[in-house]
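Exercise 4. Each item below gives a protein and its sequence. For each, produce the structure-token representation.

Item: Bifunctional protein FolD (Gluconobacter cerinus).
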Amino acid sequence: MAARFFDLDALGLALLEESKSRAATLRQQGTIPCLALVEVGDDPQSATYVSRKIEDCEKVGIAVRKIVLSESITQADLLEQILRLDEDSAITGILVQLPLPTHLEEGQVLQAISAEKDVDGLHPVNLLSLTTSDPSVIPCTVRGIDAVLQQAGLVLEGANVAVLGRGRLVGGPAALLLSGKSRNATVTILHRKSRNLKNVLKNSDVIIAAAGSAHLITSDMVRSGAVVIDVGMSWPEGSLQGDVHPAVADVASWMTPPDRSFGVMTRMMLLKTVLDLAEKRIAA
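Answer:
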């Protein structure tokens, strides 16, 4: 068996065009969707991610308010800045670029953003909603994973899904969504110290890799016909590698392209979420 690769670029382009149309409709109705992007410090990698997000927003007609804060900012001052943005009626959604400097407490910062403006979907209210039949805001990468699974035509209800990784941005919320009442899969959360990792993966219909460990999953760990989605990234010796070894394509039915970033899906889902929040405000 040779896996079919998800065409992430084509999916991303379709999502971009859809967002352009939705943003134009909102503007015709007198609403300018606006994303506040908060960047703390001058980390080059974070700056690259932020610039790509701004470029995407400009392409579709979402206004951006970029706020760059000193790396030495105190927790109290950062929280005050977020409160001001949250109270600004011109702002549709707020995104704080992660990771933050180590002296800042990320959980408290994320909770300071109201659930109604939380485009990352990491507020406790939004995370809890992932377990319900009607999730409110799905974290962007997880929303991208969900869209890719839908393209494969997979029936998630009752399916065995292995989520490798338990991080705040992907693994944790992915497990909540897929095991929740809207998707009804049977989910096992794994990590690099899990016992019998191979056995669990081998019995999974779907594998979502988000561990950030280069080529951790090999072809002998994957059952024939499984769907494999790799969002893990690491850079051993300076080259991007995913969590899934390219040879997994010999046994999977569907698979994300080996050693490729999933970033285009995450970025496009950010646009969709900003527009969702704008439309919800109008409807309220």
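Check: The domain at 138-261 is CATH 3.40.50.720 (Rossmann fold).
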